[in-house]
Design brief:
550 residues; mainly alpha; Cytochrome C Oxidase, Chain A; heme binding
C-alpha cells in the first residue's frame, strides 16, 4: 500500500481514537476543573503569599504589598509541609548545584564562540590562522556548547530541583543523577573538542560523533532512573502539570538522542529526514516542555495565585505531545522527500497553535490584575518575558512552515533569527529566571547584588531584541534577493552586511549579560553578601526556621 495512503489512514484512525477518548473523558468528568491539582505547588495556607528568593526582605515586603487584594487575608503556611519541602530541597541540592555550575561554564564558552562566529560573518578574514577558529567549526562549537552545555544542564538542574518539591518526597538516587551529569558533561566536553579538531558526524544538532554521543546517552539514562523512582515514591495524589512536562521531556530527549545517533542506520534522504525530525524535536519535545513546565510552577508561585485553569494546562501538554512529532519536516520543503511528509509537517505546524493559545490564555488569566508585580519581581520578569516569547516564536514558526513564507525565508538569516527567538528569548530567559529563584534555596545564600539581576535582564532583552529584528529584516531581504533571477547571488550577501553588524551588536549585549550572570553566580558561591534561612546545600542538618516563602 502507498505510504501516503498509510499515513492518511493512520491519521484518520488516530482522530477516531481521539474522539472516543474525548467522549470517555466527558463521561468520567475528567474535564471538570481540578483546583486541588492546581494548588499542589502551595503548602496549606500559603496561597496569597508572594515568593521571590531573588529579592531581599524589604523588596519582598514591597512585592507582598503590591500583590495584596481587597478583602484577602494571609494565613500561616503549614510548617510540616514546609519541612517536607526543605527536606526535598536538601536531597537534590548537590546535583542541582553541579548542573547549574556546568551550565554557567558552557554558557560562557558558547557565548564567546557565538560572538566570534557572528563577527566572522562580516569580518571573514579575522582569526583565520587556526583551523578550529574557522567559521564552520567555531559556529558549531557555539551551537553544541549552548544547546547541550548550557540549556541541557540548566534544564536538568530545574527538573532535579522541582520534581522532589512537586512530589513532596526526597530525590531517590542522587548519586546516580550526579554520575549521569558527569557522563553527560564528559560527552559534551569531548564532543566540542572533537568538533574543534574537525571530527563530526556532519548533521546539524547531531555533530558530536556517535562514539562520544554514547557518553551523553548514558548520562541521560542514569538520570532517567532516579527521576522515575522519585515519581513512583511520590507523596502527593495529584500530579501537577509541571511534572507531566518535565518527566515527559526527559524521556523524550533520551529516546530522541539514542535513535538519532544510531550508527550506520540513517543514510541518504532518510538521514536528512531524521536530522530534522531530531533537530526540531530537541526544541519542541525537550527545551519547550522544560521551559513551559517551569513557567507553570514559578509564575504562580511568585504571585501566590494558582494557575487559572488546570485543564488548559493539561490540554497544552497533550496537544504538544500529539502535534509536535513531525513538525521538523517543513525544513525539507523542496527537498527529495515524499510530498505527503512535508504536507503533514505543515499541517502539524499549524496545529501547534492550539497548545500555544491554551498556554497564553491560561497565563493571561493567571496574571490578570497582577501584571504590575513584574515591576517588583526580577524572577517574574524573566518568566513573563519568556512566556510572551514562547507565544511569538511558536506562532512565527507555524507561519514559517507555510510554503509561501518558507519559499522566501528558507536558507536565510530569517531562520536563524527565529531559532534564537525560541532558544534564547523563550527558553534561556526562563532558565535564567528559574536559576535566580532556585539558587538561594540551594546555596543557603542571598544573591549578593540584586541590581545586577535587573541589569542582566535588560542587557539580555535588549540584546536579543536587536539580534532578532536585525536578522529578521536582513534575512527577508536576503531571501527576496535570492529569488530574483535578475540579480547576482552576491547581492543577497551584500544586502545582509549591515544587519549582520547589528547582529554582532545584539550578540555583544547578550554576552555581556551572560558574564554578569555568571559573575553574580560566582559571587554567590564565594559567599559575598548576606546569608539566608531555609535552603539546602550548606545549611545545618537541623530543619531551619522558616523565612519568607520556602
Amino acid at each position: 500500500m502507498d505510504s501516503a495512503i498509510l499515513s492518511l489512514l493512520g491519521a484518520f484512525l488516530l482522530s477516531i481514537m481521539g474522539l472516543f477518548v474525548f467522549i470517555w473523558s466527558m463521561r468520567k468528568g475528567l474535564l471538570v476543573e481540578n483546583p486541588r491539582a492546581a494548588s499542589v505547588i502551595f503548602a496549606r495556607g500559603e496561597i496569597g503569599k508572594v515568593d521571590d528568593p531573588a529579592l531581599l526582605e524589604p523588596a519582598q515586603a514591597r512585592l507582598q504589598a503590591a500583590a495584596a487584594e481587597d478583602g484577602s487575608e494571609l494565613h500561616v503556611a503549614d510548617p510540616d509541609e514546609l519541612r517536607h519541602r526543605v527536606a526535598a530541597d536538601r536531597s537534590s541540592a548537590f546535583p542541582v548545584f553541579m548542573f547549574v555550575a556546568f551550565a554557567c561554564l558552557w554558557l560562557v564558552v558558547g557565548s564567546l564562540a557565538g560572538l566570534v562566529s557572528s563577527l566572522k560573518l562580516h569580518m571573514p578574514d579575522w582569526l583565520v590562522g587556526e583551523a578550529w577558529l574557522t567559521f564552520g567549526r567555531i559556529r558549531t562549537v557555539h551551537l553544541n556548547a549552548v544547546l547541550y552545555g548550557w540549556i541541557t544542564n540548566a534544564a536538568l538542574g530545574v527538573i532535579v530541583w522541582l520534581l522532589p518539591r512537586l512530589l513532596r518526597t526526597p530525590l531517590v538516587g542522587a548519586m546516580w543523577v550526579m554520575l549521569g551529569g558527569a557522563l553527560l558533561n564528559t560527552g559534551i566536553a569531548s564532543g566540542i573538542g572533537a568538533i574543534g579538531a574537525g571530527w563530526t558526524d556532519g548533521m546539524e544538532y547531531l555533530e558530536i560523533p556517535w562514539q562520544i554521543g554514547v557518553f551523553i546517552a548514558a548520562g541521560f539514562i542514569c538520570i532517567v532512573g532516579p527521576v522515575l523512582f522519585t515519581l513512583v515514591n511520590r507523596k502527593v495524589e495529584s500530579l501537577y502539570v509541571s511534572v507531566w512536562y518535565m518527566v515527559a521531556g526527559l524521556l523524550w530527549i533520551t529516546l530522541l538522542f539514542v535513535v538519532a545517533k544510531l550508527p550506520g542506520v540513517h543514510t541518504g534522504v532518510q538521514q536528512a529526514t531524521t536530522n530534522w525530525w531530531y533537530g526540531h524535536n530537541v526544541l519542541g519535545l525537550w527545551f519547550t516542555p522544560i521551559s513551559v513546565g517551569s513557567i507553570y510552577y514559578f509564575l504562580p508561585k511568585i504571585i501566590g495565585r494558582p494557575v487559572r485553569s488546570y485543564n488548559l494546562s493539561i490540554l497544552g501538554f497533550w496537544t504538544l505531545a500529539f502535534f509536535y512529532g513531525q513538525v521538523g519536516g517543513h525544513h525539507l520543503i523542496g527537498g527529495p522527500i515524499p510530498g505527503w511528509l512535508t504536507t503533514l509537517s505543515i499541517v502539524q505546524s499549524m496545529m501547534m497553535i492550539i497548545p500555544v493559545v491554551a498556554f497564553t490564555i491560561n497565563m493571561a488569566g493567571t496574571m490578570w490584575g497582577r501584571m504590575h508585580l513584574a515591576l517588583h519581581s526580577p524572577t517574574l520578569r524573566f518568566m513573563m518575558f519568556g512566556g510572551l516569547m514562547y507565544m511569538l516564536s511558536s506562532l512565527q514558526g507555524s507561519l514559517e512552515a507555510l510554503r509561501s513564507i518558507n519559499q522566501v525565508a528558507h536558507f536565510t538569516h530569517f531562520t536563524v533569527a527565529h531559532a534564537h527567538l525560541g532558544a534564547y528569548a523563550f527558553v534561556t530567559m526562563v532558565l535564567f529566571g528559574a536559576i535566580y529563584f532556585m539558587m538561594p534555596r540551594v546555596l543557603h545564600w542571598e544573591w549578593p547584588y540584586p541590581r545586577l539581576i535587573w541589569l542582566q535582564f535588560w542587557a539580555s532583552a535588549l540584546g536579543i531584541g536587536i539580534y532578532f529584528v536585525g536578522l529578521t529584516i536582513g534575512g527577508w531581504l536576503q531571501g527576496l534577493a535570492m529569488l530574483d533571477a535578475s540579480r547576482p547571488f552576491m547581492d543577497s550577501v551584500a544586502v545582509t552586511i549591515p544587519y549582520l553588524q547589528w547582529r554582532s551588536v545584539g550578540g555583544g549585549l547578550m554576552v555581556l549579560s551572560h558574564l554578569i550572570f555568571v559573575g553574580h553566580f560566582l559571587a554567590m558561591v564565594l559567599r559575598f553578601g548576606p546569608a539566608r534561612t531555609g535552603a539546602a546545600l550548606f545549611s545545618p542538618s537541623k530543619a531551619p526556621e522558616f523565612a519568607h516563602g520556602k
